[in-house]
């Protein structure tokens, strides 16, 4: 069975963490546009330089850029048996472009799972979020600190992400409410949207996610 799953939710809802777990469990790749854009910045590519200030201020990067990134990535052979989308689509225009890509390549329909977390909890999570640019894992100072076996050997180098400043977080929540939240209705109308409660231990949320995929 080909799984094409889109994890939907506000920034900091836990999409990346759950996508990583799901990717390991199902053996299909995670496609994160945020990770791809951060990798482009780290390489210092022209694309990376173009998107840096938008990302740091908490704004979305132009649709054309992310649509092209996703199109190229979905064409890879290792993405043919399914994919877990994390952070894309984030606008109606991106969702429409994804529909076109899916129908052009005959993929199984997208299954959308929304991870529901209140904004106050999002603010708490993002202020304690830390990131290791070497193993690309995300941690939280109290909720999910790095432990032996779940990060870099010899210890992770933890950094605060440049868009986790309080000002950028408010901008991202605003971008989410205005540009991304309307996608709920878009997918609800197609009957492909399920919602899981995103509060509580990571393992419990993962169990709900798996249960909603099996239902
Ligand atoms: P989060 O979900 O925590 O905001 P991401 O890593 O998914 O973090 O995204 C970080 C930033 O990358 C976004 O704030 C935005 O600037 C950019 N970005 C990622 N995905 C997209 C997308 N699909 N469309 C536009 N911008 C994006």
> Which hetero compounds are present in the coordinates?
adenosine-5'-diphosphate
Helix content: 40-55%
Query: Which H/E pattern describes the elements?
Result: EHEHHHEHEHEEEHHEH
Straight-line distance between termini:
15 Å
Rounded to an integer in angstroms, the radius of gyration calculated over CA atoms is 16 Å
Average of pLDDT: 94
Which CATH class applies here? Alpha Beta
Instruction: Report strand order across the widest sheet.
Output: 2-3-1-4-8
Number of domains: 1
Stretches where pLDDT is under 50 for at least 5 consecutive residues are none
What is the tally of helical segments? 9
Written account of the structure:
With 215 residues, this protein is α/β, with parallel strands linked by helices. The protein has one domain: Rossmann fold. It is 48% helix and 16% strand. It has nine helices and eight strands. The chain has helices spanning 15-26, 33-43, 46-56, 63-74, 92-105, 119-127, 166-180, 183-189, 202-214, and strands at residues 3-8, 30-32, 82-86, 111-116, 129-132, 137-140, 158-159, 193-197. Strands 2-3-1-4-8 form a five-stranded parallel beta sheet, with helices on both faces. Helix 2 crosses helix 3 (46-56) and helix 4 packs parallel to helix 5. The chain is globular and about 45 Å long. The chain starts with a strand and ends with a helix. The mean pLDDT is 94. Bound molecules: adenosine-5'-diphosphate (ADP). Adenosine-5'-diphosphate is lined by residues 11-12, 33-34, 37, 54-55, 58-61, 66, 87-88, 90, 94, 163, 172. Adenosine-5'-diphosphate binds at residues 11-12, 33-34, 37, 54-55, 58-61, 66, 87-88, 90, 94, 163, 172.
């Amino acid at each position: 069975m080909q799984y094409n799953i889109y994890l939907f939710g506000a920034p900091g809802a836990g999409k990346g963490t759950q996508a990583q777990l799901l990717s390991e469990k199902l053996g299909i790749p995670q496609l994160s546009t945020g990770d791809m854009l951060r990798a482009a910045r780290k390489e210092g590519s022209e694309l990376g330089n173009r998107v840096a200030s938008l990302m740091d201020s908490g704004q979305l990067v132009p649709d054309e850029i992310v649509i092209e990134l996703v199109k190229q990535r979905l064409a890879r052979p290792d993405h043919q048996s399914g994919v877990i989308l994390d952070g894309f689509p984030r606008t109606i225009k991106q969702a429409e472009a994804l529909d076109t890509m899916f129908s052009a390549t005959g993929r199984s329909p997208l299954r959308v799972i929304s991870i529901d977390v209140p904004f106050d909890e999002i603010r708490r999570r993002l202020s304690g979020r830390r990131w290791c640019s070497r193993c690309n894992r995300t941690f939280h100072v109290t909720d999910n600190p790095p432990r032996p076996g779940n990060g870099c050997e010899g210890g992770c180098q933890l950094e605060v992400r440049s868009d986790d400043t309080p000002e950028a977080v408010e901008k991202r929540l605003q971008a989410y409410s205005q540009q991304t939240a309307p996608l709920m209705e878009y997918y609800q109308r197609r009957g492909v949207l399920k919602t899981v409660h995103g509060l509580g231990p990571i393992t419990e949320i993962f169990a709900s996610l798996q249960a909603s995929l099996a239902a």
